[in-house]
Amino acid sequence: MPDVRLASPQGKWILLTTVLGSSMALLDSTVVNVALPRIGRDLDADLAALQWTVNAYLLTLAGLILLGGSLGDHYGRRKVFVVGVVWFAVASLLCGLAPNTGVLVAARALQGVGGALLTPGSLALIQASFHPDDRGRAVGLWSGFGGMGAAVGPFLGGWLVDGPGWRWVFLLNVPLAVVCVPVALRHVPESDGRPVRPSAAGSATESVTGGAAGRPHGRFDVLGAFLGALALALVTYALIEARSGPVGVVTGAAVAGLVAGVAFVGVERRHPDPMLPLDIFASRQFTAVNLVTLCVYAAFGGFFFLSAVQLQVVAGWSALGAGTALLPTTVLMLLLSARSGELAERIGPRIPLTVGPLLCAAGMLLMLRVGPGASYAADVLPAVLVLGFGMVALVAPLTATVLASVDVARAGVASGVNNAAARAAGLVAVAALPLLTGMSSEAYRSATAFDEAFQRAMVLCAGVLVVGAVVAFTTVRRPAPDCRRPECRTHGSVLAPPLEGERTKGRLS
């Protein structure tokens, strides 16, 4: 049984290591959007290149994150975590030195591979190292510090873009890795992914992304991971290039993406230990909550991609101003998400998962007021506050309901699947929104053209959120009394790593 206590020097070192590692991935997910206009100007990039700057990272992260957790289970979580940190840092260095968009996009894809290795590993190390009595508090501190990083990220990114330059958004990861890796090797114990026996208090642990019973994977589902990533890549390519690419090539990519998706399902159905066990979707509630996840995170992905550009290109704000404009959403989630989870336990998840997306939809419609000469107090802040309260209402109950909808032994894989679905939804939204709104490849260089497309995009995002609310209202039901609940329900950012991955004695009431 893991026995490291949080108050011990080793416990503090473990917490520092995992916070530093997860912060690298979290900072990149929150600050790159702020840098997009400056990247486009400096590298003479069109809108498609900026989309790929975001999506190349999301593509490899979403496609490989489940496999990354499996590698940690098999080869050792500390080892894979350290490899992920080093990989991420080297890819970040390549991003910071990129002479053109081609190199930048390729380096961003490599960053996603590193993120897929370190993101599940950061939480897994906490769960595998700390004594059961301290584990919940350790996860809470990890999440809280991650939320602080999410809050600082846009401010720091804006300051870097306006000051030393956008390249430092990526180069900042290198010194973080230089600190993180030696601490991990010296102070973090290795764990091989074997399930921990129940303690006298009745608690037990389970692999973050292991098999149905929490066992380490005997055979890696490499083919499944490849086909899943290939399907996402081809569909993303077709959506991004549909505006200006050759019709035959775009059509071929779309068809090939669908074929790869069908092949992925076939492989997962036959694999003895699949990356995505399809029988988990036999739970109607699990399927419904993941549909809600797809809706809300698609809207969030489109919103965060476009809003930072809107504030700079159309409203004329600095990168620092645009980066800090959305800060209230993070602050509200840090302060109120745990209470939202407690409320959902008392009244059930149906109402929060219905009201939350509707509030977010209202917040995005309020963003229609943000145009040339927009005022923060009168135009941006009301929209951001309504959006933030919507996120508070839905994010924590969404995590809890995912875990409550499957057997306790499959909580880890359920959390992993839901996290991958959220990232894939954001990926597709970033690819599809410019196409659906008629945004040209040079739209971000024109305040008028971008503003018109942004208005249409916010309406589309609000509509997708309303669909998510309808799905939640018609399908989500109160969980059984003895189902799972997360160890920690404090969320700092919708872009943060998942908060759950292992079984504990906690229950939803």
From TrEMBL:
Gene3D superfamilies: MFS general substrate transporter like domains (1.20.1250.20), Multidrug resistance protein D (1.20.1720.10)
GO cellular component: a single term: plasma membrane
GO molecular function per UniProt: transmembrane transporter activity
Domain of life assignment: Bacteria
Pfam family of the protein (one): MFS_1
InterPro entries with a match to the protein in the record: MFS, MFS_dom, MFS_trans_sf
Cross-referenced PANTHER family: EXPORT PROTEIN (PTHR42718:SF42), MAJOR FACILITATOR SUPERFAMILY MULTIDRUG TRANSPORTER MFSC (PTHR42718)
Main localization (coarse): membrane
Entry keyword Transmembrane: yes
Localisation: Cell membrane
Protein name as it appears in the record: MFS transporter
UniProt-listed GO biological process terms: response to antibiotic
Membrane topology listed for this record: Multi-pass membrane protein
Annotated Basic and acidic residues bias: 500-509
Spans through the membrane: 12-36, 48-68, 80-99, 105-126, 138-160, 166-185, 222-240, 246-267, 288-309, 315-338, 350-368, 380-408, 420-437, 457-476
UniProt key word Translocase: no
Start and end residues of each Major facilitator superfamily (MFS) profile domain: 14-480
Keyword field: Antibiotic resistance, Membrane, Transmembrane, Transmembrane helix
Region annotation Disordered: where it falls in the sequence: 190-212, 486-509
Species in which this protein is naturally found: Streptomyces asoensis
